[in-house]
């Protein structure tokens, strides 16, 4: 900036006495300097009318930001009025420097410097009245723009006046050396000097002209007594111990004593529930036996029908909609955050797109700079000229990005898509909002290289870019620094660059020791269907290419992190694509295991005959077809899918399906075919035995997931629907297609044909002994007896109860949330960016307080309820937000809200030149911008009480002018750029939406984001309730907070009750279905439910220990855990309930050996290999929430199902079902009679490979049943 910002008018040296001011001269003095008014005809002054006009113009430039506090503005004018116009001027002013000037051909001696002597108390009082006056548009202090390099934090009365008297600031017409003299101090004063000792008004006082006291926003002394905040709730303590821990210990002790003192239950008479249980089992058994026999008899027809049904459903996949938008996944359409986001997007432009670099130079040495103006300053290594020049080169390279667009049929550059706040309609490249340190030099190498000699206090030194930098970071709104360089601090696009947008990693506003440079390119955020959306994405991809190329350059002196707006989505899509092979390998491992484990191997020669590769493949295909059918069905009816569904549902269905497959196949292999029984009848009879258990689990899971669809969270709801349908289809296909496949495989095996070569037969016949495999004998002979030993049972109960109570305690310490960096792969550049962001950024995200339709902003009461300047309500919208910033650790608000209402009032104030009307010409009476010099009519007259309020007509007339007025030196209150998009009016001119922008404190994790949202909502609700009391306000008027992150973090405010509801809706059907299908066996249902609850609670406890946060992804996995737990628990519970052995321990042993082996092989060993493979996934989300959490679920499910549950049943299980016992006794009696007849007739049967053994073997097996012989009343 060459020369002063305004034309300086300086006084001539004149020692004549003060003159009486009369007429127009008096009126002007009374208007400009009312504190000097002694009455018309008795008032003398030492200034001419021209000097008064010059003084008025000079005062306007500063008073425009002080007018909102009348006493401050009065004190500010008072200081300059007494030095310029006081009748005792010679006692206050000591001329120090003059120069000869030519004025209309006459040489005159002009004053260009003087000393002004004022009392320190007057100066301090004036400064105190102004130090808290705010600039609404920035939320900062006005004093920061009037104190040069010291800013608001280090400003004092002396520094404030020194800046005002420094002509190098471009505003002062001459140099004024203010000397602040303490009371009764006379030493060293020039002869005849009497320091001015006027009285400074307090900011909470009215002015002599009747203007009201300043508001609380601008004057702490004017603030009402605000009750202190309620203290944070104390942690729950019992004595000196954690209350939750004490309760958990009490519960543990009580449960331990309960089971230790529990008596055994002995059989009682047959009850109606036992008869109901028997009837239920016989009905289901006969139904499934008939069904299985039918399916086995017509395998090819069944497979064809199943294929047609699956294909019919799967065709819907052509219409599938895959939801990837996180908002649509995790935020319910009717949720508050979504409604508020929709309102914001409907009425306002979305947030601009951010493309950012954060650069450091850790190995660069720091240095000390001895500044003439600012003293010795420490500069960090990165604040060096060579690095700033390199940053400027990188910035210019990015700004020059160009590419051809076929859609636009032109070359596209940054200016076509950038955010240009001060010229949005026709932006040039320099109009684009680019925030960086070089902007303090207007991106000019010449300005960076500029140097000049400067003299201060007799010392001459060279000033350079460092002096300009120090000045600008402390006074970013300055149009000219106070150095001899005379450069502006404003960016080339016309706006200020606040220091927290240019540098980072500093403390206590010591910007010169910052550890990082920040460069931000802001682009317009177009909707996805907009023609320019692809252009923005293309520009951002080229931005990333340039930055990544720069990073690889060995000559780069920076270590930096970077991001583009598209980076999050790009990285998530990349990791999804890269992890697909991991999932495929996982499924392959599971398939290999199933194929190998299902085989029955009696000899090497029969290896390919007894293997079950095709059966295993068929089981996998059944799972795959059920998932495809489920996805196709919902695609038909228009319910979208998601990546979570694709990753979780197959695992869930595989766990359920594999378990059922193992139970069915192993039971078939272990069961002996009865005499005269065909293969198909054998399959049907086995299915009748095991299908009720399979039906119990599948129905429980289906109902569980269908009820889980009541969740309001879209991702959880869609997952529950897809999972429920997939489990249902899996059960139906197992009852049809898999039965048919097993029938075909049994036919092949009976014919001794090889599996992979059906034409090849093996001569060696199969063994006639039952094919129990390895696991069943091991569990029967070793594991079950060891587990159910008297001592081990007590140990198991104590250990698991301790685990349960510990997990309850740990639940209270579980973190809720999902940090966004976890969605990134470990090798993502975004992880480095997040680390830099949290470390170096000094301010949080902006948040808007948005008002809806129904509030009258044009009324005086309405204005007062919103504004924060003089005359406004003490608890207005703006005031309450300011109060909240006083407690940033509680409110998470750092900077008060910018208020368009306040700036509009200041813009209307006649004390500035912002709002004027054309005085003559064709536009007479129309708005005239401050840049036009020929407009003398003010929009408003000066109010007598200092409280300016427009009429309704004036409000509606001038508001559009304010919003479109570009701010400049003469009118910094113009609303273009800051407020032009903050107010939305309908066709009638009514304000239907407006917003007030504040800033959060730096938020680094999801817990802080959630807490910030909650506190902002509480504040907004408080404001809403107060504003609804204003006459004329609609009952549905609302103020709500909004920022881009709220829609993601809202779920964490309600996810705990949401999760409890979902878990309850999943657990309830498992209990109900179990009770019903076991014939109203309430005890079995309760024990079943208890074990599943313990698995779930223990899973949450381990989540706390392993650092797995609770969020929507965790909730989906916990819902899945319920489904998998049903498989671990329900089969064994049913087996125990239907056992007829005499004691609880023997029945528990039988259930553990028989059903536990199938569960272990079918659920645990099916899941574990696939889960372990997921540990190699790149995405942290998969490693944490799929590998870790599924591993925990599987291991805990296995431990509870195979360790805890048998012990629990041995203590608390239901007694022997006498109805079942009677039925078995009758059957055994009938069998014995039949065998006796067969022996007498000496009739022999020839059986195939799977025939039953001889009668002696059968009798041995029968003896092993140890049928009870208690007297039973029937």
From TrEMBL:
Keywords: Cholesterol metabolism, Disulfide bond, Glycoprotein, Lipid metabolism, Membrane, Signal, Steroid metabolism, Sterol metabolism, Transmembrane, Transmembrane helix, Transport. Belongs to the patched family. It is a multi-pass membrane protein. Residues 579-744 form the SSD domain. It comes from the Eukaryota. It holds the Pfam family NPC1_N. The chain crosses the membrane at residues 245-266, 302-320, 580-601, 613-637, 643-666, 686-713, 719-744, 786-812, 1060-1079, 1086-1108, 1158-1177, 1189-1212. One of its GO terms (biological process) is intestinal cholesterol absorption. The keyword Lipid metabolism applies. GO terms for cellular component: endomembrane system; plasma membrane. InterPro entries: HMGCR/SNAP/NPC1-like_SSD (IPR053958), NPC1_MLD (IPR053956), NPC1_N (IPR032190), SSD (IPR000731). One of its GO terms (molecular function) is cholesterol binding. It is found in: Endomembrane system. It catalyses: cholesterol(in) = cholesterol(out). This is SSD domain-containing protein.
């Amino acid at each position: 900036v060459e020369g002063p910002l305004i034309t300086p008018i300086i006084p001539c040296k004149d020692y004549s006495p003060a003159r009486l001011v009369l007429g127009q001269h008096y009126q002007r003095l009374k208007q400009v300097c009312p504190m000097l008014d002694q009455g018309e005809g008795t008032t003398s002054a030492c200034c001419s009318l021209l000097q008064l006009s010059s003084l008025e113009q000079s005062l306007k430039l500063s008073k425009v930001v002080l007018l909102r506090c009348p006493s401050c503005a009065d004190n500010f004018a008072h200081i300059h009025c007494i030095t310029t116009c006081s009748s005792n001027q010679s006692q206050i002013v000591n001329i120090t420097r003059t120069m000869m000037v030519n004025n209309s051909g006459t040489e005159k001696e002009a004053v260009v410097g003087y000393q002004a002597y004022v009392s320190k108390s007057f100066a301090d009082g004036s400064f105190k009245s102004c130090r808290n006056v705010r600039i609404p548009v920035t939320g900062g202090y006005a004093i920061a723009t009037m104190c040069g390099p010291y800013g608001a934090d280090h400003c004092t009365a002396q520094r404030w006046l020194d800046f005002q008297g420094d002509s190098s600031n471009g505003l002062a017409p001459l140099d004024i050396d203010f000397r602040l003299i303490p009371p009764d101090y006379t030493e060293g004063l020039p002869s005849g000097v009497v320091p001015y000792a006027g009285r400074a008004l307090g900011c909470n006082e009215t002015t002599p002209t009747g203007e009201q006291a300043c508001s609380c926003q601008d004057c702490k002394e004017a603030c009402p007594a605000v009750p202190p905040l309620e203290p944070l709730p104390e942690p729950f303590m019992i004595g000196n111990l954690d209350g939750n821990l004490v309760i958990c210990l009490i519960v543990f002790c009580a449960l331990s004593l309960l089971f230790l003192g529990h008596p055994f239950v002995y059989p009682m008479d047959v009850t109606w529930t036992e008869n109901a249980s028997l009837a239920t089992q016989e009905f289901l058994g006969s139904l499934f036996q008939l069904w299985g026999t039918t399916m086995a008899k017509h395998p090819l027809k069944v497979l064809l029908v199943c294929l047609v049904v699956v294909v019919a459903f799967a065709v819907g996949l052509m219409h599938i909609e895959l939801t990837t938008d996180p908002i649509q996944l995790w935020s319910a359409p009717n949720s508050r955050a979504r409604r508020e986001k929709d309102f914001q997007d409907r009425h306002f432009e979305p947030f601009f797109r951010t493309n950012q670099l954060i650069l450091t130079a850790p190995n660069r040495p720091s240095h000390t700079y001895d500044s003439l103006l600012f003293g010795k300053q420490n500069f960090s290594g990165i604040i060096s000229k060579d690095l700033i020049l390199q940053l400027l080169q990188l910035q210019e390279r990015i700004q020059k990005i160009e590419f051809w667009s076929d859609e636009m049929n032109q070359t596209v550059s940054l200016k076509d898509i950038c955010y240009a706040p001060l010229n949005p309609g026709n932006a040039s490249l320099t109009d684009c909002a680019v925030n960086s340190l070089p902007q303090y030099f207007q991106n000019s190498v010449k300005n960076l290289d500029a140097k000049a000699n400067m003299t201060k206090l007799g010392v001459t030194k060279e000033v350079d870019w460092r002096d300009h930098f120090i000045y600008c970071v402390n006074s970013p709104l300055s149009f000219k620094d106070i150095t001899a360089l005379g450069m502006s601090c404003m960016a080339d696009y016309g706006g200020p660059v606040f220091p927290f947008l240019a540098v980072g990693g500093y403390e206590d506003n010591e910007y010169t020791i910052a550890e990082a440079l920040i460069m931000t390119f802001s682009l317009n955020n177009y909707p996805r269907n907009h023609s320019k959306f692809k252009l923005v994405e293309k520009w951002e991809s080229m931005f990333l290419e340039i930055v990544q190329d720069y990073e690889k350059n060995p000559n780069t002196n920076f270590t930096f992190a970077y991001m583009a707006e598209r980076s999050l989505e790009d990285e998530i899509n990349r990791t999804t694509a890269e992890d697909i092979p991991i999932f495929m390998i996982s499924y392959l491992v599971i398939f290999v295991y199933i194929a190998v484990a299902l085989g029955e191997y009696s000899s090497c020669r029969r290896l390919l005959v007894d293997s079950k590769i095709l059966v295993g493949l068929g089981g996998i295909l059944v799972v795959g077809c059920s998932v495809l059918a489920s996805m196709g069905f919902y695609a038909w009816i228009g319910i979208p899918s998601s990546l979570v569904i694709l990753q979780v549902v197959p695992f869930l269905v595989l766990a359920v399906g594999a378990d059922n497959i193992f139970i069915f196949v192993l039971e078939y292999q272990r069961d002996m075919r009865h005499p005269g029984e065909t293969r198909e009848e054998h399959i049907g009879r086995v299915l009748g035995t095991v299908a009720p258990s399979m039906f119990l689990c599948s129905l429980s899971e289906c109902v569980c997931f269908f009820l889980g669809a009541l969740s309001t969270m879209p991702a959880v709801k869609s997952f529950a629907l897809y999972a429920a349908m997939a489990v249902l289809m899996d059960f139906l296909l197992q009852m049809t297609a898999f039965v048919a496949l097993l029938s075909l495989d049994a036919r092949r095996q009976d014919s001794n044909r090889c599996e992979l070569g059906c034409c090849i037969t093996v001569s060696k016949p199969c063994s006639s002994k039952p094919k129990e495999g390895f696991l069943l004998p091991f569990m029967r002979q070793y594991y079950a007896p060891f587990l159910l030993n008297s001592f081990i049972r007590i140990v198991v109960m104590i250990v698991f109860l301790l685990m349960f109570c510990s997990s309850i305690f740990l639940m209270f310490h579980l973190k809720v949330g999902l940090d966004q960096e976890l969605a990134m792969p470990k090798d993502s550049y975004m992880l480095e960016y997040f680390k830099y962001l949290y470390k170096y950024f000094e301010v949080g995200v902006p948040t808007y307080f948005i008002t809806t339709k129904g509030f009258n902003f044009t009324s005086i009461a309405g204005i007062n309820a919103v504004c924060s300047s003089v005359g406004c309500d003490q608890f207005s919208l703006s005031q309450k937000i300011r109060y909240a910033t006083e407690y940033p650790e509680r409110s998470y608000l750092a900077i008060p809200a910018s208020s368009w209402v306040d700036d509009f009032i200041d813009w209307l104030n006649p004390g500035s030149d912002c709002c004027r009307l054309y005085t003559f010409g064709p536009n007479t009476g129309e708005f005239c911008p401050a840049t036009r010099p020929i407009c003398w009519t003010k929009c408003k007259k000066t109010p007598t009480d200092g409280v300016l309020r427009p009429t309704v007509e004036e409000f509606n007339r001038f508001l559009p002018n304010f919003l479109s007025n570009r701010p400049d030196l003469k009118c910094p209150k113009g609303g273009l750029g800051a407020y032009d998009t903050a107010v939305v009016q309908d066709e009638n001119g009514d304000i239907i939406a407006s917003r007030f922008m504040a800033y959060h404190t730096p938020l680094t994790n999801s817990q802080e984001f959630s807490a910030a949202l909650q506190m902002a909502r509480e504040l907004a609700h408080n404001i809403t309730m107060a504003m609804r009391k204003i006459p004329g306000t609609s009952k549905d008027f609302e103020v709500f907070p909004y920022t881009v992150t709220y829609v993601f973090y809202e779920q964490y405010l309600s996810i705990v009750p949401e999760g409890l509801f979902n878990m309850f809706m999943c657990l309830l059907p498992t209990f109900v279905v179990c009770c019903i299908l076991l014939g109203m066996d309430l005890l079995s249902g309760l024990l079943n439910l208890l074990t599943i609850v313990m698995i779930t609670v223990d899973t949450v406890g381990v989540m706390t220990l392993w650092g797995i946060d609770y969020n929507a992804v965790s909730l989906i996995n916990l819902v899945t855990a319920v489904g998998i737990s049903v498989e671990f628990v329900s089969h064994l519970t049913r087996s125990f309930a239907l056992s007829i052995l005499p004691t609880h321990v023997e029945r528990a042993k039988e259930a553990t050996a028989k059903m536990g082996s199938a569960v272990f092989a079918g659920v645990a060993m099916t899941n574990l290999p696939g889960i372990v493979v997921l540990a190699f996934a790149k995405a942290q989300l998969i490693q944490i929430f799929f590998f870790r959490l599924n591993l925990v679920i599987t291991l805990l499910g296995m431990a509870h199902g195979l360790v805890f549950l048998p012990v629990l049943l041995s203590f608390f299980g239901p007694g022997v079902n006498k109805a079942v016992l009677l039925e078995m006794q009758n059957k055994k009696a009938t069998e014995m009679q039949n065998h006796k007849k067969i022996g007498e007739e000496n009739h022999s049967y020839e059986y195939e490979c799977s025939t039953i053994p001889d009668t002696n073997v059968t009798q041995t097996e029968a003896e092993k049943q140890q049928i009870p012989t208690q007297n039973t009343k029937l």
